[in-house]
């Protein structure tokens, strides 16, 4: 892929910026636009994002505050999902690149106030507003902006809302994801070292606390957010909080739970990395994994449960031997599974458990 240098980017920006005059230099009131104008603006912001997303931040964009406000107007009111996403991402990109210093704190506060008001407007698609909130929160967090914690606290509180709390869980997923196309150093954005780990350490205890105290079904939003945060971090980051997190994960390892697959995938990742503390809990979760490998009606859950059992064999022989007889006996029952992929995983897992004495002695 060809990377444009500074002069090439500047030339392209100067050449094409004239075509975006309405978005760059005029305050947009989406409700007053005709249907045709709304459509034009929706597609123009998509094109504008393609130019500004990877623009060197040393190339100054005029009226950047106005542009940010226009992007939020379009992301909040447009019925075009592509426009909503592009405008939200462009807002985040502009904030990351150009909103520096205490003199811009009033703008960040103003944006928050406007979006709070938008959430209460019945005429708006709340999902669009949540997407915009999530992208701004990520932008501030990646940058390490002084207003970052204020927006993260707001996101934590929004999880409790019965109307849009479930949508808000996507914010905590975004905070742990690395996107190759947006908000990274290749796009000339500011990315603080270990920002995901800092976010995790800040949010994990409030998430656990609120999960334990919130009523159903709102507490599920906090649980899902915990799982998303765990997926984006290593054991080194998780370890100080593991004693609080593990009981939640163990609760989910039963066929009737809604988030059992996510919990299993988290377990699998931890087992693959040979997380030391899990060795002390083998007696607790191996029977649950065996139950899932037989009882779940979903093939994916049965397969991941078997993969977890396979990875358990990486632990010490003294911990595994008391479980070996039970595991082999229960796995034998799984050989009759109607799905070939499951049977294949059963054979693989059972073979490894049968040979743990030899393998571990050799080690």
TrEMBL record:
Q: Where does it sit, as one GO cellular component term?
A: nucleus
Q: Kindly state which keywords UniProt assigns to this record, in alphabetical order.
A: Cytoplasm, Cytoskeleton, DNA damage, DNA repair, Nucleus
UniProt-listed GO biological process terms: DNA repair; iron-sulfur cluster assembly; protein maturation
Q: Which residues form the MMS19 C-terminal domain?
A: 4-310
Iron among keywords: no
Compartments in which it is found: Cytoplasm, Cytoskeleton, Spindle; Nucleus
Query: Gene3D superfamilies under this entry?
Result: Leucine-rich Repeat Variant (1.25.10.10)
Cite the SUPFAM superfamilies for this sequence. ARM repeat (SSF48371)
What the protein does comes down to:
Key component of the cytosolic iron-sulfur protein assembly (CIA) complex, a multiprotein complex that mediates the incorporation of iron-sulfur cluster into apoproteins specifically involved in DNA metabolism and genomic integrity. In the CIA complex, MMS19 acts as an adapter between early-acting CIA components and a subset of cellular target iron-sulfur proteins.
Q: Which family does it belong to?
A: Belongs to the MET18/MMS19 family.
Query: Which PANTHER family does this chain map to?
Result: DNA REPAIR/TRANSCRIPTION PROTEIN MET18/MMS19 (PTHR12891), MMS19 NUCLEOTIDE EXCISION REPAIR PROTEIN HOMOLOG (PTHR12891:SF0)
Note the subunit structure.
Answer: Component of the CIA complex.
Q: What is this protein called?
A: MMS19 nucleotide excision repair protein
The root-end lineage is: Eukaryota, Metazoa, Ecdysozoa, Arthropoda, Hexapoda
């Amino acid at each position: 892929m060809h990377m444009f240098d500074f002069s090439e980017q500047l030339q392209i920006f100067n050449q094409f910026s004239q075509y975006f005059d309405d978005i760059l230099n005029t305050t947009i009131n989406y409700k007053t636009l005709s249907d045709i104008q709304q459509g034009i603006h929706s597609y123009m912001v998509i094109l504008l994002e393609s130019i500004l997303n990877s623009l060197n931040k040393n190339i100054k964009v005029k009226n950047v505050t106005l542009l940010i406000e226009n992007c939020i107007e379009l992301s909040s009111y447009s019925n075009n999902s592509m426009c909503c996403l592009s405008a939200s991402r462009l807002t985040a990109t502009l904030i990351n690149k150009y909103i520096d210093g205490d003199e811009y704190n009033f703008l960040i506060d103003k944006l928050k106030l406007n979006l709070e008001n938008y959430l209460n407007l019945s005429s708006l698609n709340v999902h669009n507003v949540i997407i915009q909130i999530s992208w701004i929160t990520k932008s501030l967090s990646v940058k390490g902006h002084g207003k970052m914690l204020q927006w993260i606290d707001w996101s934590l509180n929004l999880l409790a809302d019965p109307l849009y709390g479930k949508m808000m869980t996507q914010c905590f997923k975004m905070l742990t994801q690395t996107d190759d196309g947006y908000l990274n150093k290749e796009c000339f954005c500011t990315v603080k070292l270990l920002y995901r780990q800092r976010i995790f350490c800040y949010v994990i205890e409030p998430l656990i606390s609120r999960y334990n105290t919130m009523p159903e079904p709102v507490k599920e939003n906090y649980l899902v957010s915990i799982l998303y945060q765990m997926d984006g971090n290593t054991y080194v980051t998780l370890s100080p909080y593991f004693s609080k997190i593990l009981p939640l994960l163990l609760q989910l390892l039963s066929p009737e739970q809604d988030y059992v697959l996510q919990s299993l995938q988290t377990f699998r990742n931890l087992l693959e990395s040979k997380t030391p503390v899990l060795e002390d809990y083998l007696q607790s979760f191996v029977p649950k994994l065996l139950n899932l490998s037989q009882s779940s009606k979903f093939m994916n859950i049965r397969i991941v449960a078997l993969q977890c059992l396979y990875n358990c064999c990486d632990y010490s022989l003294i911990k595994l031997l008391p479980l070996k007889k039970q595991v082999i006996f229960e796995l034998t029952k799984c050989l009759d599974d109607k799905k070939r992929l499951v049977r294949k995983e059963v054979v693989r897992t059972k073979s490894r458990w049968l040979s743990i004495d030899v393998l571990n002695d050799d080690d």
